[in-house]
Specification:
Elements: E1 25-30, H1 38-51, E2 58-63, H2 77-87, E3 91-97, H3 105-111, E4 123-130, H4 138-149, E5 159-162, H5 163-166, H6 169-190
Helix pairs in contact: 1-6
GO molecular function: oxidoreductase activity
InterPro entries: Flavoprotein-like_sf, FMN_Rdtase-like_dom, NAD(P)H-dep_FMN_reductase
Protein name: NADPH-dependent oxidoreductase
Length: about 200
């Protein structure tokens, strides 16, 4: 019998105790082109809820609606600063409404600014909001693959929030808490000592 060992990592995991010398940074990214959207509220809530799992975590939320007219402008300083913030993140919350069965064009344009594998080993939590149950698979079929393409790890899959729940603060909080609770072991495996 021939034995073999498979290794898929070329560098240590991002969250090994020997490599982390800073407080973890959790960045929320809202891909809704409308300002003050329910997607932004959800992004902020999920980002804060995840921060409760990570010792000493700092949080930032980027609202892409503030970049809507500039996201395709090459070299725009505000857009570049937002991309730099994602590069420095340990965990991303990437939220989008579902438009025509997929994530928004604004989010696509922003994510297209990253090279293949550029966010290697950054944990990501995709979040989708949609009115139709038929769009519940938009995250796994469209958003997760692009996040993996730019290097993110997506250990817990997508948090899908029906539009009706996204509008109800109490129901939304319950859904977010339950989703995170079920996936805490997966996040703990990916980011060991940062999970309390």
């Amino acid at each position: 019998m021939i034995g073999c060992t498979l290794s898929f990592r070329t560098e240590p995991p991002r969250f090994q105790e020997t490599t982390v010398h800073h407080s973890p940074l959790i960045v929320g990214l809202c891909g809704n082109p409308a300002p003050a959207s329910k997607t932004l509220t959800l992004t902020t809530e999920v980002t804060a809820a995840l921060a409760d799992l990570f010792a000493g975590a700092a949080t930032e939320v980027i609202d892409l609606s503030t970049h809507a007219e500039r996201v395709l402008v090459w070299g725009d300083e505000a857009v570049a600063a937002s991309r730099d913030l994602l590069r420095s993140a340990d965990l991303l919350v990437v939220a989008t409404p579902v438009y025509k069965g997929a994530y928004t064009g604004l989010l696509k344009a922003f994510l297209d600014g990253f090279d293949l594998g550029e966010l290697a080993n950054v944990l990501a939590v995709p979040v989708t909001v949609a009115a139709s149950p038929a769009h519940a698979l938009a995250g796994p079929t469209h958003l997760e693959p692009v996040l993996r393409e730019i290097g993110c790890l997506v250990p817990g899959g997508t948090l899908h929030v029906p539009d009706k729940i996204a509008r109800d603060a109490d129901a939304r909080s319950v859904l977010v808490a339950e989703w995170i609770s079920v996936r805490t072991p997966m996040l703990a495996t990916a980011g060991r000592e940062l999970v309390r």
